[in-house]
Design goal:
153 residues; Muramoyl-pentapeptide Carboxypeptidase, domain 2
Length: 153
Amino acid sequence: MSKKVLRGRPSDHPYLHKDFHGALSFAVDYVEERFGAEALRELLGRVARTVFSPLIAQAREGGLEAMRKHLCRVFTEEGGEFEAGLDEGELVFVVRRCPAISHMRRHGYRVATHFCETTRIVNEAISAEVGWSASVDHDQERGTCVQRFCVSA
């Protein structure tokens, strides 16, 4: 029997993060139903501070521009529709089509009741580490939101 060796680099393949959202959606419902909303908030905050520690370091160095670049890169890779505006110590990131919700619906994943709250919790956790404030106004049914990051005075 012959053996075939496949060689490649991650850059040789399309971005595959989207299926993570289905797993996250399931986890959000699971944790919230079994342990409560506060446990979900604590878990997501801890995960955000760990997973996004490189972004937090970049934001400390590069300010809101670092966050703008990060969000634009991620939403471009995932095929989202968005606009980003940075002015006077505020970053406003408008999501016209959420790639996570679009992907989950297209593939039949259940979208957690409070799925969009994960964005708010994660943004708040990251922002707290940098000394900013953050808010998210979302319409989960439409798959849209407005994320705001403000440099605290």
